[in-house]
Amino acid sequence: MSYFERALVAAIIIGAVGGFVGCLVVLRRRTFFAQALTHGTYPGAVAAAALGVSVPLGAAAASVVLVLVMTGIARVRNQGAQVAAGIVLTGGFAAGAILAAVVPSLPVQPESLLVGSILTVTPADILLAACVGLVALVLVVVFGRRIVFSTFDQAGFRAAGYREWPIELLVLGLTAATVVSALPAVGAILAIALIAAPAAAARLVTTTYRGMLVTAPAIGAASGVLGVLASRALAIAAGPAIVLAATGFLLLALLGSKLRALPWRASAIPVETAEDARTA
Amino acid sequence: MTENVVRLDDATFTYPGGSSVGGFDFAIGRGEAVALIGPNGAGKSTLLRGILGLVPLTHGRMSLGEPVGEASGPMADAAARPVTAKHSDRGMLGFLPQSMEFDLDFPISLEQVVMQGRYRRLGLLRWPGRADRAAVRHALETVGLEELAATRFGQLSGGQRQRGLLARALAAEPELLLLDEPFNGLDQPNRDALVATLRRLKRDGVAVLVSTHDLELAQQVCDLVLLVNGGQLSFGPVADVLTLGNVQRCFDGVEVEIDEHTLVVPGHEGH
Question: How does the record classify its membrane topology (chain A) (predicted)?
């Protein structure tokens, strides 16, 4: 497989997994948390690169620490989860920047950890992303209706005799795993776009959560392919191109939903269907 | 003698924080409806949550069908430690909560929300089958929303949402239905629909415990009244318990008027 084909496969898989897990993130309104996670894993990635161990491994270790830190800060004096996420986001990023500056001979460009380099992903990176996707799929098939129930109606979920924390932990874990597996391809800064944008776009164009879980991975994968192709055709960086493609899909979905909501469309549709009925 | 669906013997429920309501000594049989009446903060929701197993039973006994919990005080030995309803017992309970903190943007249909009432029966790995879909359809018919089954839940009106949640509670095919202030903020058509539904459920043998500020409801659908303020004050047939003196005592000296139907309690929401 050429490096370019490998990049395409990586883009499809990472885009699809990001879109799929992104649905849970967007529906549970954990986007800011996910963003904090992406930025906060940066020092872990830098440290791993400096030590010569696997970058996703370092990021994974960092994400476990971050989830604990955020849970801790969220409990402090009415500060709440948003504040915790904000602190971790900026603090983690600053720590990574300092680490990258003081470690004299970092074997990789710090920049590639920030925006990724999909043309240099290894088969192991792809395998990791695929495994994360498979685990996410199985967990959503098994726990999906409980995730939906607890997201939609937390009080009712508890009253029905279920516990909330295993669901929260499951979604946080999947989010962290997705961020970590997307890191080699799109980096610490851009990963959030692959999680949030396809899911947000899918939410606009579908009416059911099941539809969303199918549409978002498709949009994510399409963004990946478009980005990689654009990066070759226009000689631009692949990571940003993928993210711009995902953002483009979101804008299209937004435009589409705005157009649908316009009054002239609403009155035009019955006329069309009446004409269809006559010609049929 | 009717068969008891729920029975409490000198039961006390205590939040982990320490606040508790106690002295509950009553039973509800099949097809009986009990109005739970008391001022705000009297412990009505705590009692409902206690029966649901969300607040620990710390004293006395509670039976749901069969005995599920026995406790004889926080200082007692290990055998008498706080007991909550086991998960397996929750299948017979239906609950309509008071607070409605939903994500109304959530892309979920009314039918899917009602199906949530079946999840306890489905467990983790079984997919909804014909019996589950039939129960959902039947529950939607009971509350009169079958035509809106495919509508997104967030697009329903407030009253329809509440009926939808009642349908979710009914889809569990409960033997005991717990309703926390179900009439708050309902307009007349939705109110009438709810009264009709509760009457039908009674005929079908469902036991109902409904907390309310509304004495009209108590008289329309309930056989028994449970007056509560920090614990049980009195329990019995509507005509015996719902006297001016009892209600005044229950509402703690707050001025109370009973104008035939409506309980007017200044300082509480008046209907």
Answer: Multi-pass membrane protein
Burial letters B193-228, b for 16+ CB under 10 A, else e: bbbebbeebbeeebbbbbbbbbbbbbebbbbbbbbb
Nearest CB among B108, B119, B125 relative to A209 is that of: B108
| Strand B57-64 to B66-72 pairing | antiparallel
Q: In this predicted model, which residue has the larger pLDDT, A275 or A106? A: A106
> Position of tokens 């240099």?
A120
Q: Show the tokens assigned to A9.
A: 């496969």
Using the predicted structure, report yes or no on whether residue B47 has a pLDDT greater than 60: yes
| A240 sits in which H/E element | helix A238-261
Regarding beta strands B33-37 and B207-211, do their DSSP bridges make them parallel or antiparallel, or are they unpaired?
parallel
Tell me, what's the ipTM?
0.78
Examine the pLDDT at A147 and tell me if it is beyond 90: yes
Instruction: Report the residue of A145, A151, A162 to disrupt the B interface, i.e. the one with the largest count of B CBs within 10 Å.
Output: A145
Between CA A95 and CA A70 the distance in angstroms is 16
Is the sign of the CA dihedral A234, A237, A242, A244 positive or negative? negative
Enumerate the residues of chain A whose CB falls inside 8 A of the CB of residue B53. 161
- Say if CB A17 and CB A68 are below 8 A apart: no
Is there a contact between A208 and B109 if contact means CB atoms under 8 Å apart?
yes
Q: What percent of chain B has pLDDT over 70?
A: 82
- Measure A264 CA to nearest chain B CA, in Å: 22
Mean pLDDT confidence for A197-212: 93
Q: Is the pLDDT of residue A165 over 50?
A: yes
For residue B3, pLDDT beyond 80: no
Strand partners, B83: B57
Q: Tens digit of pLDDT for each residue in B100-131?
A: 677 888 899 999 999 998 888 888 888 888 99
A149: closest chain B residue by CA: B116
Our measurement of the distance from residue A33's CA atom to the centroid of its chain's CA atoms, rounded to an integer in Å, reads 11
| Nearest CB partner across the interface for A154, out of B101, B107, B108 | B101
pLDDT of residue A198: 96
